[in-house]
């Protein structure tokens, strides 16, 4: 009983805005969703380094199911600007509240960890920082610059917030020239009010389009969760919208419900359905598609970046517009 009470208290502190919501049903996970508990020497080394550098990872904060596999390969997605988000998306497990002030030393520590781990490809994401005048854009640029200086051979992928109502912020980040600019649309437009209430679908779409307009050499990437009640036709429309915005890389994964206070899983999409989505997306012209139950934005990001770059080179060689 004590453990249960402690767990509820911890959840309330992490998601205070969700505690008055009614509990949602939890569907039993099918076999294709289950993963092994994280363990192993390399996993422990990665965890130790993250702790020593006082870094935050989305792997831990968002409860990613792939943490065991990724950390065992020394792959980690660093989450900058703290562990507390100013928004309260109903799907997300990241803590909600008023964040602390930015840590000016964080860019150095992230860059140092990147160099120490000898990462060929690093993924940097963040919480939403609506409390900051630029939404944290300059901090993103500082982190990118620090990594370039400390580990010039590392390619950099960023997964950004939407910088809603932050004039000039997106341009600051684009001009820092990451190799991949990722911003997730997350779900279909119809579900935004319940799933992503603080965001605006067409603003997010326009953000991705602006990246391509300002720097066509940057790869753009976006992701969707499925299993929230969307229809197949709605997913295909989002694919078309992404392609119209010039998005190169699409990820599609199964939504997993963090707690009973989060949005419910309406259904578990089968592996065959994911294969169908991948086939359709490739036919629509995406350079790279990753669609599977456990696909996440940064899952296999390094290997996928190599494939993405090769796909662009092949398309250019064949005379196809990319």
TrEMBL record:
<protein>
    <recommendedName>
        <fullName>Lipoyl synthase</fullName>
        <ecNumber>2.8.1.8</ecNumber>
    </recommendedName>
</protein>
<keyword id="KW-0411">Iron-sulfur</keyword>
<feature type="binding site">
    <location>
        <position position="298"/>
    </location>
    <ligand>
        <name>[4Fe-4S] cluster 1</name>
    </ligand>
</feature>
<dbReference type="GO" id="GO:0005737">
    <property type="term" value="C:cytoplasm"/>
</dbReference>
<dbReference type="InterPro" id="IPR058240">
    <property type="entry name" value="rSAM_sf"/>
</dbReference>
<dbReference type="Pfam" id="PF04055">
    <property type="entry name" value="Radical_SAM"/>
</dbReference>
<dbReference type="InterPro" id="IPR031691">
    <property type="entry name" value="LIAS_N"/>
</dbReference>
<feature type="binding site">
    <location>
        <position position="70"/>
    </location>
    <ligand>
        <name>[4Fe-4S] cluster 1</name>
    </ligand>
</feature>
<comment type="pathway">
    <text>Protein modification; protein lipoylation via endogenous pathway; protein N(6)-(lipoyl)lysine from octanoyl-[acyl-carrier-protein]: step 2/2.</text>
</comment>
<dbReference type="InterPro" id="IPR013785">
    <property type="entry name" value="Aldolase_TIM"/>
</dbReference>
<dbReference type="InterPro" id="IPR003698">
    <property type="entry name" value="Lipoyl_synth"/>
</dbReference>
<comment type="similarity">
    <text>Belongs to the radical SAM superfamily. Lipoyl synthase family.</text>
</comment>
<feature type="binding site">
    <location>
        <position position="92"/>
    </location>
    <ligand>
        <name>[4Fe-4S] cluster 2</name>
    </ligand>
</feature>
<dbReference type="InterPro" id="IPR006638">
    <property type="entry name" value="Elp3/MiaA/NifB-like_rSAM"/>
</dbReference>
<dbReference type="GO" id="GO:0051539">
    <property type="term" value="F:4 iron, 4 sulfur cluster binding"/>
</dbReference>
<dbReference type="GO" id="GO:0046872">
    <property type="term" value="F:metal ion binding"/>
</dbReference>
<feature type="domain" description="Radical SAM core">
    <location>
        <begin position="71"/>
        <end position="287"/>
    </location>
</feature>
<keyword id="KW-0808">Transferase</keyword>
<keyword id="KW-0479">Metal-binding</keyword>
<keyword id="KW-0408">Iron</keyword>
<dbReference type="GO" id="GO:0009249">
    <property type="term" value="P:protein lipoylation"/>
</dbReference>
<feature type="region of interest" description="Disordered">
    <location>
        <begin position="1"/>
        <end position="24"/>
    </location>
</feature>
<keyword id="KW-0004">4Fe-4S</keyword>
<feature type="compositionally biased region" description="Basic and acidic residues">
    <location>
        <begin position="14"/>
        <end position="24"/>
    </location>
</feature>
<dbReference type="GO" id="GO:0016992">
    <property type="term" value="F:lipoate synthase activity"/>
</dbReference>
<feature type="binding site">
    <location>
        <position position="89"/>
    </location>
    <ligand>
        <name>[4Fe-4S] cluster 2</name>
    </ligand>
</feature>
<feature type="binding site">
    <location>
        <position position="64"/>
    </location>
    <ligand>
        <name>[4Fe-4S] cluster 1</name>
    </ligand>
</feature>
<keyword id="KW-0949">S-adenosyl-L-methionine</keyword>
<dbReference type="InterPro" id="IPR007197">
    <property type="entry name" value="rSAM"/>
</dbReference>
<feature type="binding site">
    <location>
        <position position="59"/>
    </location>
    <ligand>
        <name>[4Fe-4S] cluster 1</name>
    </ligand>
</feature>
<dbReference type="Pfam" id="PF16881">
    <property type="entry name" value="LIAS_N"/>
</dbReference>
<keyword id="KW-0963">Cytoplasm</keyword>
<feature type="binding site">
    <location>
        <position position="85"/>
    </location>
    <ligand>
        <name>[4Fe-4S] cluster 2</name>
    </ligand>
</feature>
